[in-house]
Amino acid sequence: MAADDFEAMWRDLVPVGRSASSGGYFRQPWGAAEVELRTWFAEQCAARGLTVETDGIGNQVAWWGDGDQGVLTGSHLDSVLDGGAYDGPLGVVSALAALDTLRARGVVADRPIGIGVFVEEEGSRFGRACLGSRLVTGATTWDDARGLRDRDGVFLADAVAASGLDPSRGLLDLERVGTFVELHVEQGRDLVDRGVAVGLASEIWPHGRWRFDFAGQANHAGTTRMEDRHDPMLTFAMTALAANKQARLSGQRATFGRVQVEPNGTNAVPSLVTAWLDARASSDDELAALVDQVERQGTDRAGRDGTSLVVTPESVSGSVAFAPDLAARLAGLGDWPVVPTQAGHDAGILSDAGIPTAMVFVRNPTGVSHSPDEHAETADCLAGVEALADVLAELTGPAQP
């Protein structure tokens, strides 16, 4: 029954926000596809006799059962640009299917179970990762966030209003939440290498996004001698290579994945190159050292190129260590490995807010994520549903001594 429910829900989601050309997904928050998904979630909850609460920015939660110290599960429905199908939605669909599984087992929970969806987890539109959960937990305030702009210059406040929401209605109240469990497709190859379908998270690496503004002098591409140029593209190119080298040498991660150029003309030396660095490391100190080294080398090169560099942190998250006793307790339910992740999640934000948190990972056969090639086998997804149901039953059963 749960398998049929899972596959039916997955079929519902496949076409929403999918590009006909690439096969990837464009489910940006407060856009048409995300609004459709929000409606779909409410309908799925209603079909299960659950009432959905939607807050003033689009975060959603539905509860099964009454009381406090409930267990919240779920994930997000938005995607990166041209992203994969599983990052986020797998956790939401699996949460609904796990509830179906518990009901089919005849489980009577001592504590309520909530299924939630957080908005703008990816930060793909307004540049602030896990924005919905940051606002709910108070890690970010609405006054700070409302002025964020997307690539088209649209303010966050205007985008939220245009999707039919009103922030003055307030945000989700997490007072009922005693524990949060997020199921997610693994964004790496750890479980593949171990030959297992399911694992639990031990920690999230610290990570962040920094804006690098390289300024130079616009000029003619043909008449300006090479030795007379102040070309910020050259400074950026060297900085990107430096980031790659420093990350490889230290065993960390550094990526320049987004670039804007002004005036962006084929026959003009640019005046400004803005690039965003995504950096991740095994510790907060390692992350700071990596970014400092990339900035230093970029600044040194700018001095030689006659350009300038200004670095601005835009979204930085410190290391998150999930409660080891909770992870060990849950791992014992299925002899699941406990592994770290280099990807950020809403689970990390709720953990930082003091809510005991765990993550369940489902094997990704290629390890590819944030891409149309992202994938998980149905059998592994169903194993994840069963694992999540076991976890929820454990956490909502009689209190542990």
Automatic annotation (TrEMBL):
InterPro entries: Amidase_Cbmase, Bact_exopeptidase_dim_dom, Peptidase_M20. Pfam families: Peptidase_M20 (PF01546). It comes from the Bacteria. Keywords: Hydrolase. Signal peptide: none annotated. Coiled coil: none annotated. Gene3D superfamilies: 3.30.70.360, Zn peptidases (3.40.630.10). Belongs to the peptidase M20 family. This is Allantoate amidohydrolase. It comes from Nocardioides potassii.
